[in-house]
Amino acid sequence: MTFTTLLVANRGEIARRVLRGAREMGLRTVATYVDADAEAPFVTDADEALRLSTGYLDHEAILAAAARCGADALHPGYGFLSENAEFAAKVEAAGLVWIGPPSRVIAAMGDKLAAKKLASAAGVPVIPSSENPKDAKSIGYPLIVKAAAGGGGKGMRVVNNASELNEALSASRREAQSSFGDDRVFLERYLARSRHVEIQILGDQHGHLVHLGERDCSIQRRHQKLIEESPSPIVDDALRHAMGSAAIELARSIGYESAGTVEFLVDDETRAFYFLEVNTRLQVEHPVTEEVTGVDLVREQLRIASGEALGFSQDDVHFSGHAIEARLCAEDPAVGFLPATGTLVAFEPSSEPAVRWESGVRSGSRVTVAFDPLLAKVIAHAPTRREAATTLALALERLHLGGVTTNRDFLASTLRHSNFLDGDTTTDFIERFDPPRHLRLSDTELVWASSAGALWLQGERRVNALVLSQIPTGWRNARLPSQRTSLRLDGRQFDVDYRARRGGSFDLGKDGVARIHHWSPSAIDVEINGLRASTRVTRSGEHLYVQSRRGTAPFEIIPRFEVRHAELTPGGLNAPMPGLILDVRVEPGQHVVAGETLVVMEAMKMEHVISAPRAGTVNDVLVAKGQQVDRDVALLTLNPDAEPEV
Description:
By secondary structure, this protein is of the alpha+beta class. Helix content is 25%, strand content 33%. Strand 10 and strand 11 form a beta hairpin.
């Protein structure tokens, strides 16, 4: 069935990716958006956009939008409704072309337990599992609790022993219900030292099926992928053939059409592989496959949906070089990868090195707790794995970024980690090697960056001066005095003393010399003690973001007369992020032990547990279930037990 107008029922970077692909094929495009996304880039990428008053999960509102704009096809992206068989069936019943596998296939694969049974019947190895909690002992610990109706790390909990099982089941059910509208969960044996390897498949409506090789998605936090690559560093030709054949056999048994992914766990020691699930949609990490194969997966989805044949066979699929993708997320790796919010006052990728940016944001974008924390995907393709990794790290480091805490520096340090470069990338990589969680600049780098920032500020003051703006900074009718700018970073204060010379250069401190070659509102070209660089600078209130060679240094401008900020509630446990209070487990006067769950929060569709840091008695409970709170709001106060005498 041919179509001319495509509605994209999604948001962010995947909406932009699909809209771009559709435009390149000559299709008219329509975006849907909610109020929180009214200023998002994807809205204006489309030819038209329609507002959804009730959200991205409202079936009827989306179908009504499609009818209103005359769309004859709908692409669900990933997440949201992309694997919702009921919605796919409604789209089909409305006479629209659904860009994805038929609703019957989504239904068959959407239930993870049913999918395991189908995989087993097709001869694909599966991991022992059960939906009956009483089978936990026979499965064996450690095990993992998973949502039956979805993936993406939602509703997943690792359980190390029987005492943790009930809490994990309750949390997984709540998160599954929130994410997928289905609270069913099941238990599965947990392979701690393993690789997450998936096979990309394509099938048309004429029975043709191919696979496009594998992606290794083992670098994960909270069971969610952070870095993906193709090919896998451990998959050889024999293993690729075996996994690809298993994926194709399963796909053929269910009559698969469109793009999809068959996911496996590979035991790191034995190289045995086990079926996990089938994702009946485009994957977040699909660009790495596109880079190494040259196959445009969005284009193939659209062609297949219109009834065209694939036009190539398995023998026509070839691989070139290595591709790695990093997911740039609004989160703080230093505090357990908790989601972060704020306004991106700076988001400026460098033009070099040449990498692929799939971004859902821009400078000025507001990041809230309403959606997943993914900001952008960055993909590097190179002849070798090491070159792809270092190129990607450099692109991340050169991104001028400010206003929101992200995992950028963690990603760059992971990509440069010796164990990553050696291919030792099992799913417990982060726990085993603990790459640096934030930017670590040397003293020399910090002095240069703070000096550049201070000199940029003096230039800003001259531009904004109301009187005598052409007079050099610090000028007097006598010997020019020194001026001082103080900046703070990670608790360290940097006092930059500078004095303007008559020739346009500056004395720095006791023996330093600097010269500004060019100043602009967004950058400074400056030579400091013989080292010259042109660096981007962004000011937002009392924050100054200075680009260094390894990332963005987020300085705080210290005023001459400091204003004391309000202290956090004494003895209080504070919200680590904005979010919704799902549960309060304690009451005033209750005694708790270290590690006991006190409050459960939800932010960006994930649950976060606030636990007692030590034993003590609850004094006051300051929040209630269902309450929305901001970051650092006091949740409760705790009176710690006295330390035992030694």
